[in-house]
Amino acid sequence: MMGIxxxxxxxxxxxxxxxxxLPILYLYTFMYSExxxxxxxxxxRNNEYTSIxxxxxxxxxxxxxxxxxxxxxxxxxxxxx
Length: 81
Fold this sequence. Notes:
The chain has 5 helices and no strands.
């Protein structure tokens, strides 16, 4: 079995060596809802996860978004109501 990297490199038309630099996870668009984000922040505040990186990997939410929400930022939609 050759793995997913050759197939992805053919789809993206990049050399396979390029994919060693980028994790496969970040080649896909993050699909998360506001509910997922609130569940992730609640899990972090309940000490279910000790690091934001592990939390981001578990909930498939970008680390920067989690850092911003945990520091008190509100969503764009909430801020512009």
